[in-house]
C-alpha cells in the first residue's frame, strides 16, 4: 500500500520558518514535489527534486526562501521554508512519481502565516 504522509505544518508569524516532511512508503519514487493550494485558488507547484537530489526546481515565488531536499534511505522529502509570508498560507501537498506507474498525492498539511 502506497502512502505519503506529510507533517510539519502549523501556524507561524511572517518571517518565520517551518520544515515540512513527507514520508513515503510502498513504492520506490523518482521525482518528488511539493505543491500548495490556497483557499479559493488552484493547486500550484512549489518545488521538486529528482531521486538523486542532483536537480531541484522551484516556483519563482519561493526561490531563495524555500529549500527542497530528500533522504532516500528514509524515503522522505523535506521542504525547509524560511522568511515565510502571509501569501504562503495554503495546504501543502506532497506529490511523488514512482519509477513505474501513476503518481501519488499526500493528504496535505496546513501552513498558516500571519502578518
Which helices and strands appear, and what pairs or packs with what?
Blueprint: E1 3-7, E2 10-13, E3 18-25, E4 29-37, E5 44-49, E6 56-58, E7 66-71, E8 76-81, E9 90-98, E10 104-105, E11 109-114
Parallel strand pairs: 2-11
Antiparallel strand pairs: 1-3, 3-8, 4-5, 4-9, 5-6, 7-8, 9-10, 9-11
Largest sheet: 7 strands, mixed
Helices and strands, in order, run as EEEEEEEEEEE
Shape: globular
Radius of gyration: 13 Å
How far from one another are the termini?
A: 40 Å
Can you walk through the features of this model?
The model has no long low-confidence stretch (mean pLDDT 96). The relative contact order is 0.33. Strands 2, 4, 5, 6, 9, 10 and 11 form a 7-stranded mixed beta sheet that branches. The chain has a 4-stranded antiparallel beta sheet with strand order 1-3-8-7, with no helix packed on it. With 115 residues, it is an all-beta fold. It is 0% helix and 56% strand.
Question: What labels would you give this structure?
Answer:
globular; single chain; 115 residues
Short description:
With 115 residues, the chain is an all-beta fold.
Amino acid at each position: 500500500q502506497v502512502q505519503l504522509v506529510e507533517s510539519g505544518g502549523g501556524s507561524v508569524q511572517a518571517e518565520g520558518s517551518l520544515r515540512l516532511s513527507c514520508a513515503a512508503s510502498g513504492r520506490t519514487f523518482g521525482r518528488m514535489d511539493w505543491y500548495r493550494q490556497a483557499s479559493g485558488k488552484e493547486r500550484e507547484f512549489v518545488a521538486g527534486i529528482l531521486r538523486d537530489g542532483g536537480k531541484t526546481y522551484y516556483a519563482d515565488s519561493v526561490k531563495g526562501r524555500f529549500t527542497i531536499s530528500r533522504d532516500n534511505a528514509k524515503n522522505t522529502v523535506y521542504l525547509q521554508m524560511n522568511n515565510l509570508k502571509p501569501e504562503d498560507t495554503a495546504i501543502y501537498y506532497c506529490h511523488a512519481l514512482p519509477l513505474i506507474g501513476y503518481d501519488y498525492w499526500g493528504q496535505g498539511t496546513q501552513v498558516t502565516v500571519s502578518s
